[in-house]
Amino acid sequence: MKSIKEYNQLNNLHKAFTLKVSDLIKSLIEQKGIKVHLIEERTKTQLSFADKITRKNKSQSSDSEITDISGIRVITYYQKDVDLISEIVKSEFQIDEKNSINKSQILKNNEFGYQSVHFVVKINKERGKLSEWISFADLNAEIQIRTVLQHSWASISHELQYKKTYEIPNILKRKLFRLAGLFELADEQFGELKENHNKIESEVFNEKPTKTVDSNNEINLITIDHFIQKSEVVTKLLESANESGFLVDSDVEKELSKKSYKQTLSDIIRIVKKLEIDKISDLEKLLESSIDISYDYFTDLIQNSTTSVWSGWRDFFTELILMSKLKELDKDYYLANGWHKDTFELVEKISRKYYS
Question: Where is each RelA/SpoT domain found (predicted)?
């Protein structure tokens, strides 16, 4: 029978196992293209382990009998992703069905409360044969999967120190249950918002008519994204930038651009709103009118730049042109959103020359 002292000697093994499983889960989720809010891990300390044994009033015959020494928590944005990640876990690990639970499935139709999926797992037999996993073959880990809102509910309930329904004073029960219902409803609504967003995005990019968005007129993140990627006018700006000396055809640049792309789109929307442009068609006309000066404008930027290579993509060159249409540029805004001070001051200086 293992003592707490012996467990302490195994602690490093459990810590390594926790990190290994966490890295595996991160990799599996990334492979499926699922975006999550947070993946966190923890390994129980000796004190926590000792407390659990004391409360159970027994000494464990095996360290594997305690199923949550290693713990990984995946916090998603949407309930749909909880379901998708649950399927990943089921396919990649051995599931201890007896000790695993889906909290939402045990709630009755007229009940509200904590929802989360808890799996107790071991690595599967195939992975357990690999040299880098063989020492972890008999260890358990608990994997919790929940949405951001479910995590909020759990965190607040924990702070209030209510772990069981019967612990809650009657005067507070109704309010807590109503709040739980609101959390559940909000989760559903966010899921529906995401599905509607994806539907609109698909319709706009496939140039299908949609009742909710006029892709030729309404300016929003989806229609601007489509315009930047598909517009022939923006392609002409890209060609001017390339001819002036900007690096525009690098795969590396495309990857770098992805990281700031949404921010640049937001900047573009901000500028067009200041210019009182509220239709994609009007934005296209404005950019079309700037084609003739775009080569000189971009050349001036390159010739006055102190960097050996200046790169950009479709969104960046569109923003540069639009910046020349503003009477004044908000320096604090641009510096707060990732622009380097020297770059901003150069663009500010040159864009004034082409202001119209």
Answer: 41-168
Inside any domain, residue 147: yes
| pLDDT tens track for 128-159 | 889 999 989 889 999 999 999 888 877 777 77
DSSP readout, 141-173?
Answer: EEEEEEEHHHHHHHHHHHHHT--SGGGS-HHHH
Q: Which two tokens stand for residue 13?
A: 């093994």
Residue 154 shares a structural domain with residue 263: no
Find tokens 């200086």 and name the residue.
349
Q: How many CB atoms lie within 10 A of CB 72?
A: 24
Contact indicator for 59, 3 with CB cutoff of 8 Å: yes
List the structure tokens of 235. 């392609």
Asked whether the beta carbons of 234 and 317 are under 8 A apart, the reply is yes
| Residue 67 and residue 142 in contact, taking contact as beta carbons nearer than 8 Å | yes
Look up residue 325 and give its amino acid: K
Sign of the torsion angle spanned by Cα atoms 110, 116, 117, 121: negative
Statement to judge: residues 326 and 233 lie in one domain:
yes
- Beta carbons of 143 and 25 less than 8 angstroms apart: yes
Q: Which of 127, 146, 179 is the last residue of a domain?
A: 179
Residue 89: give the domain boundaries.
4-179
Whole-model pTM above 0.70? no
- 193-198's contacts with Cβ under 8 Å and 24+ in sequence apart are 194/77, 194/78, 194/80, 197/222
End-to-end CA distance of the chain: 83
DSSP H helices, 206-250, are 221-230, 232-244
